[in-house]
Design a protein that fits this description.
131 residues, alpha+beta, OB fold (Dihydrolipoamide Acetyltransferase, E2P), 2 domains, 5-stranded mixed beta barrel, 2 helices, 7 strands, 36% strand, elongated
Length: 131
């Protein structure tokens, strides 16, 4: 059996299509692990997680391009940062971030550290839900 460029191309194409199909199927099943705020530490920096809690306050940054939501889940408090890109999408969907105050929410984000304080960066405008 002779291996030709055409056969290699077909094998590569088939492998790529199977890989893409697998990613599409399994992406819906991948979910951030839900943790308590007190469990968030430096070892989790860069991890995508989910938290549930009550938004105690919403503050705008000095530049006005991002917001900080203070969330309390009963075990601790953490700031969730909403950067400009997610903020614009929320505003385009008619959502005012101030409406989250005193609401119980579920937030999906990435653990970050700013000035030795742990924070959660909102992944996208779809990453915060009132529950």
């Amino acid at each position: 059996m002779e291996i030709t460029d055409e056969k290699i191309f077909k094998i590569a194409l088939f492998t790529a299509l199977v890989g893409i199909l697998g990613m599409i199927i399994f992406t819906g099943g991948v979910e951030s692990k839900e943790v308590k705020i007190k469990e968030i530490g430096k070892a989790m920096i860069g991890e995508k997680i989910a938290i549930k809690g009550v938004v105690e306050s919403v503050k705008q940054s000095s530049s006005g391009k991002s917001y900080f939501l203070s969330i309390n889940d009963g075990t601790g408090k953490i700031n969730v940062v909403i950067f400009e890109s997610a903020l614009l999408k929320l505003q385009n969907n008619g959502i005012d971030v101030n409406k989250y105050v005193k609401e119980r929410v579920k937030v999906f984000g990435t653990v970050t550290e700013y000035g030795s304080v742990m924070e959660l960066s909102l992944d996208s405008s779809n990453s915060i839900k009132i529950i």
